[in-house]
Amino acid sequence: xxxxxxxxxxxxxxxxxxxxxxxxxxxxxxxxxxxxxxxxxxxxxxxxxxxxxxxxxxxxxxxxxxxxxxxxxxxxxxxxxxxxxxxxxxxxxxxxxxxxxxxxxxxxxxxxxxxxxxxxxxxxxxxxxxxxxxxxxxxxxxxxxxxxxxxxxxxxxxxxxxxxxxxxxxxxxxxxxxxxxxxxxxxxxxxxxxxxxxxxxxxxxxxxxxxxxxxxxxxxxxxxxxxxxxxxxxxxxxxxxxxxxxxxxxxxxxxxxxxxxxxxxxxxxxxxxxxxxx
Length: 278
Prior knowledge:
Blueprint: H1 18-39, H2 44-47, H3 52-59, H4 73-106, H5 108-121, H6 126-136, H7 140-165, H8 169-177, H9 182-219, H10 225-234, H11 238-266, H12 268-275
């Protein structure tokens, strides 16, 4: 007989979740609106686009008309190149953005030194960096990764900075009164206090990496989903453009979901604390 204090594990059925059906309704409404815009509106600009059924048939075809589907090796080569670049840029953004954000929020001298330059460069769009990246870095890969890294880096740094600034000043005073060193403050006050914002930044940075990746690949790459989209446009292969866009969105969503899942597991202590009123 199970003990009365043993917690019961409830498994959620996604099909019984109202949010799931609302999400499906939103997706279905978008597809219906897309089909109607292509097939039923008199606007010629919409009529040039492929309808959803045409895209799905091409995407799932063993013998695609334009050479790209789930049954072709080139499709997965493009995905692997883009994934490698996005992960490389994302990793660099973490390694450089988190420390910078921590010190900008913690040390007044670092904030005064770096924040103005950071704020000046952050609004520059990724496409504006492409010529500089090509001039600075030999080869295609470093240039594309650099452009992808920049947007993720700014997102990661800013979220970390905001998380550190949100820590109450009393925590720093209490740590100093108890004889805490800078190392103690860093590991016992700043990192735990800023962790929720850091994980939010991780999700934003991952999405930003995929966003800026497409821009870099369109200009300076020979493989990747961004290159596939741009090459398909030049070759007037409109269904392949939609396939590349949908794949980019799907892989980016799965990447952000993986980061969110890891963050939820690592932040379980915070949920327990909030749940117990600690």
